[in-house]
UniProtKB/TrEMBL annotation:
GO terms for biological process: double-strand break repair via homologous recombination; mitotic G2/M transition checkpoint; response to ionizing radiation. Keywords: DNA-binding. It comes from Guillardia theta (strain CCMP2712). One of its GO terms (cellular component) is SOSS complex. This is OB domain-containing protein. It comes from the Eukaryota. GO terms for molecular function: DNA binding. The keyword Ribonucleoprotein does not apply.
Length: 158
């Protein structure tokens, strides 16, 4: 995708479809296996960048809303253009467990739009109880996941 064209797309300034048409989720309610996720969040931090076998670039970020913090991964130009402080609307995303940690993705059918920057309420509890980005998950089959008990060293169910 042409970077200049993409930049116009991601820095949208108005809603393109009515909010009432979508089911909006808070980050605290999202778990691995969820599909067609529509949510609004602020980018807190770009953690690292990795590559895939197919040659794509994956940008690992930490995001938050007023209920929780969690990990997200954005591919190629999506991740390159998003910066800490950006307020992002994701439509059509999905959640999966990457290295047993809940991670939000835009995916091929998802869409992200930058709605603004910095002015967005988010949670930041001192005890870290709002930080689901470190929560470990284990598969129970059929794309169903449950949280691992804290301090558990058991490996995930195959």
């Amino acid at each position: 995708m042409d970077k200049a064209l993409f930049q116009k797309y991601i820095y949208a300034t108005s809603w393109k479809e009515p909010i009432a048409d979508k089911q909006w989720k808070k980050l605290a309610t999202i778990k691995p296996g969820d599909k067609i996720i529509n949510t609004l969040f602020i980018v807190l931090e770009k953690v690292k960048t990795t590559g895939t076998k197919e040659g794509n670039t994956v940008h690992h970020i930490v995001i938050a809303d007023n209920t929780a913090k969690m990990n997200a991964s954005l591919f190629d130009a999506y991740g390159e253009l998003v910066q800490p402080g950006d307020i992002i609307r994701l439509t059509g995303g999905f959640c999966s467990a990457y290295q047993h940690v809940s991670t939000l993705y835009a995916g091929k059918l998802g869409k992200i739009e930058r709605l603004g920057e910095f002015c967005f309420p988010f949670t930041d509890k001192q005890d870290g109880s709002d930080n689901i980005s470190k929560m470990q998950w284990q598969s129970i089959g059929n794309d169903q996941w449950i949280p691992k008990p804290p301090g558990s060293s058991q490996s995930p169910v195959p």
